[in-house]
Design a protein that fits this description.
By secondary structure, the chain is an alpha+beta fold.
Length: 852
């Protein structure tokens, strides 16, 4: 084992070319042969070029069955292309040029390379200054819109926008760090070492070795800027030297390698406020070892059960088991078979771990037990000069040996997470997306998607109607996941149990304040409160019982907490605060129908602010009406100040609800005829007057509420803040046309006809945004709302040229046109525009259940 000291970065760079002079576009890495692609992964290797080499990025072919490595190409990427990152769409590679001068300036650079779709060959797209010397880390945000770079000697971080072709624009944000540490030789000034976006893509975390601090920035993708989060930073132990960062895939935890004290630190990350809180730290070395050591890289296995750290000096990989709570236990320390393990990577299959031994010029392969995470040495290795960074690009799989359950051929695949918008073939296997490729694929069933858009299945987070009839309507509108999150239920276990035999689409529910209040107050209403549940103030004991039952519902896996202030007008602020405190304590979103108007939004923002509860405001269009622009700006401002607030809208200028509900009776019971004319009896189409209002109020039933304008609806729908959600309403065989036409209406009327939204923007609002709103509470939502390998096979295929809604207030059950195929968990529920009978592939969408 080696006890050598860490050479200063400046000493090392002094042996390298220290001036990058701008390479021409078009320099390429040779393509590897097509006959070598079967059962292979592509690996890009970033290196230091201090020995005078021109080629600095190497392309290596790894046999996924044996782990065998073979170099198949290299490219002149400028001096010291030491750290690499790949765009989420797999089409662009970014490399730092870790030098101190670029074109005569004291700065390094970041280079961009296009990746050939079928071969992995690289073509230079250009480079930009990193705006600080010795850039040592580069990453891409999770939407693929910006590159983040850490400049070691510059002591700063920078943000560079990604252009439409993948090339980089000049930096639009440069943030200089401040601070120092007790180790004068390494910490006399800031040394930014890493910057990565958090899983929500709302924040960026930057580890600074010199400042002993992890800085937290708000990541503004629209403004292409970074804003420091006050009170968000983690101050590390003096002399720790934080280096690299890894997020746990499901827990709110961050793990950080500390280079100068040989520890891995665990921190809690509040993804709402963007705040880090140190928990503990563990040595990365075996007990009794006291030599010189500098931890470098860190990765968490996709399962979240194993953490890996590389030790330079001890020359090993430390393997930690991760408990369900996030607690770490050092389980294994394995020699890397070389000197100075700089970085390492898990291959896409999870079967192998590869280590780049920088000083011994080798990449070594370890077998990995996918259950325990433990490593086993193999004989597989390859010699490459000064390897630093390893980045896998899974090559499109050959279909020669794979017959998929179902294949989708020739469709325009649109994925809002990666930005993919290309013609592709897709293979589905065991309910998941197994391959997305330009190559031929074969399956037991084939969908011809030529001329059609292939999108993630639509996720509707606001539906009233959770039965086979409405699930059928939802599926014909492209919905693959339908959630009742406003009204909710008072008995979560029973609600899911009733649907345990399976449904046409995925389903889920909130624990509803309205429903719980009805139960506690013994309200006689069957759907909405009509008595004490609406109109009687709860006693302190009853408030305590309401809060207790909501906590029980959350422990049973409720998706979130639903509330509707207009339906419970007697609920006091103390009662609402009690509910919001439960939400804050459990980090559960409050899904709230607010009291209409600016005052109602101020009220709910105050409740959320006082308790620090996550908040989702339902149907902003019908809550705001003419005040929609003002109220959207209030939400935007809250988010800009770090508040976890989201909202939604539906594409209709009239609402609908039960005529007996408090929200109608309290407003219209004493209203003049001119105001009553806003109401339409849905079954006959007649506008109401004093006599008909009283008559229908005794009968009960749905009433259409005409209070909005198309102009305000469009403002809401096209706002970047809004999720598309239907507020589907269906009772006794009738209801609002939004139940059957919301998503087709957005695609037809607001995308194709009005051009209020781009097609990708609309898809994002219907898929990725609702998934991201829920995934902190419901980790399974991370596999929905995306078209990517490994995601749930929830897919909607539609004709962008014809899709549109047909339902009206008189005929609300008319299904849309243009929604051709809908697939839920790999099983078609709509084929050629018609419902598939006798299928129930839908699964419960549910938060983790507390087993205590």
């Amino acid at each position: 084992m080696t006890n050598s000291r860490e050479p200063s970065r400046r000493e090392f760079l002094a042996t390298s070319i220290v001036s990058l002079v701008g390479l021409s576009r078009g320099s390429e890495i040779p393509a590897w042969r097509e006959d070598s692609q079967l059962d292979a992964e592509l690996l890009y290797v970033g290196t230091y070029t201090g020995d005078g080499r021109r080629d600095g990025i190497y392309l290596v072919h790894m046999d996924r069955r044996s782990g065998e490595l073979k170099q198949v190409g290299s490219v002149d990427a400028g001096p010291n292309p030491s750290f690499l990152a790949i765009h989420p769409n797999g089409r662009v590679l970014y490399a730092v040029n870790e030098v101190e001068k670029y074109n005569g300036r004291v700065t390094g650079a970041v280079s961009a390379f296009g990746i050939a779709r079928d071969t992995g060959a690289l073509t230079r797209l250009g480079e930009q200054p990193s705006e600080g010397s010795a850039p040592c880390f580069v990453s891409v945000d999770r939407e693929g819109r910006v590159v983040l770079v850490a400049n070691y000697y510059g002591g700063n971080v920078a943000l560079l926008p990604i252009q439409s072709d993948g090339a980089l624009a000049a930096a639009t944000a440069i943030v200089r760090h401040v601070g120092s540490g007790p180790k004068a030789d390494r910490q006399s000034e800031p040394h930014a070492h890493c910057i990565v976006a958090d899983p929500s893509n709302r924040f960026a975390l930057a580890a600074d070795l010199g400042a002993d601090r992890v800085f937290v920035y708000r990541l503004d993708l629209d403004g292409k800027s970074l804003h420091h989060v006050d009170g968000g930073d983690a101050v590390m132990r003096a002399g720790a030297g934080p280096r690299h960062i890894a997020f746990h895939p499901t827990l709110p935890l961050v793990f950080i390698t500390n280079e100068l004290d040989s520890t891995v630190a665990t921190l809690r990350f509040d993804a709402v406020r963007g705040a880090l809180s140190p928990i503990d730290a563990h040595s990365t070395l075996p007990a009794g070892w006291s030599g010189t050591n500098y931890p470098a890289d860190i990765h968490v296995a996709p399962s979240g059960r194993t953490l890996y750290v590389s030790n330079r000096g001890h020359n090993s990989i430390a393997v930690f088991s991760v408990a369900a709570t996030g607690a770490l236990t050092l389980d294994q320390v394995v020699a890397t078979g070389g000197d100075w393990p700089r970085n390492f990577s898990l291959d896409p299959t999870g079967r192998w771990l590869l280590v780049a031994n920088q000083k011994s010029n080798s990449i070594v392969v370890f077998g990995r037990d996918e259950e325990s995470g433990r490593l086993t040495p193999t004989r597989q290795r390859i010699a490459l000069p000064s390897p630093v960074c390893l980045q896998f690009l899974a090559h499109p799989q050959s279909s020669t040996n794979t017959v998929y359950d179902r294949v989708i051929l020739g469709g325009r695949v649109m994925d809002p997470e990666s930005g993919l918008d290309e013609v592709r073939n897709i293979g589905l296997l065991d309910g998941r997306i197994a391959v997305i490729t330009t190559q031929a694929v074969s399956g037991r069933d084939t969908i011809d998607a030529r001329g059609l858009v292939v999108a993630p299945g639509f996720i509707d987070i606001h539906t009233h109607g959770q039965d086979p009839e409405t699930y059928r309507y939802y599926s014909l509108d492209g919905v693959t996941t339908a959630l009742e999150l406003e009204l909710g239920t008072s008995d979560v276990d029973a609600w899911y149990r009733e649907r345990s035999a399976g449904e046409r689409v995925n389903y889920g529910v909130s624990i509803g304040h309205i429903k719980v209040r009805m139960a506690v107050m013994h309200d006689a209403g069957t759907w909405m409160p009509v008595g004490d549940g609406a109109y009687r103030a709860a006693s302190p004991a009853q408030i305590g019982e309401i809060a207790k039952r909501i906590e029980i519902g959350l422990s049973e896996g409720a998706v979130d907490i639903g509330a509707g202030f207009p339906y419970t007008p007697a609920a006091t602020r103390d009662e609402l605060l009690a509910v919001f405190r439960v939400a804050a304590k459990t980090k559960t979103p409050m899904h709230v129908h607010i009291t209409p108007g600016v005052a109602g939004l101020k009220e709910v923002l105050s409740l959320a602010g006082e308790t620090n509860a996550p908040l989702h405001v339902v149907h902003i269009n019908s809550a705001a009406l003419a005040e929609t622009p003002v109220m959207l700006e209030m939400i935007r401002d809250a988010r800009a100040h770090g508040r976890d607030v989201t909202t939604e809208a539906y594409p209709y200028d009239a609402g609908m609800t039960e005529i007996k509900s408090a929200t109608i009776q309290d407003v219209y019971k004493s209203a003049p005829d001119e105001r009553l004319a806003e109401l339409e009896w849905q079954r006959t189409g007649e506008r109401l007057n004093r006599e008909s209002f009283a008559r229908y109020s005794k009968i009960g039933g749905p009433v259409v509420v005409h209070t909005n304008t198309e102009q305000m609806v469009e403002v809401a729908i096209k706002s970047p803040l809004t999720i598309v959600a239907s507020d589907a309403y269906w009772q006794n065989g009738t209801g609002h046309p939004r139940t059957t036409g919301t998503f087709a209406r957005v695609l037809g009327r607001y995308v194709r006809e009005a051009h209020a939204l781009s097609l990708m923007e609309a898809i994002r609002k219907m898929t990725l945004m609702p998934a991201q709103r829920l995934e902190a509470r419901v980790p399974a939502m991370r596999e929905k709302g995306r078209v990517r390998v490994g995601a749930d096979a929830d897919i909607t295929i539609f004709d962008a040229a014809t899709v549109v809604d047909r339902s009206t207030y008189r005929e609300p059950s008319l299904s849309p046109v243009g929604i051709q195929h809908v697939i839920v968990n790999g099983v078609p529920v709509v084929a050629n525009g018609r419902p598939v009978e006798g299928v129930a592939p839908g699964k419960p969408v549910r938060a983790p259940i507390d087993q205590r």
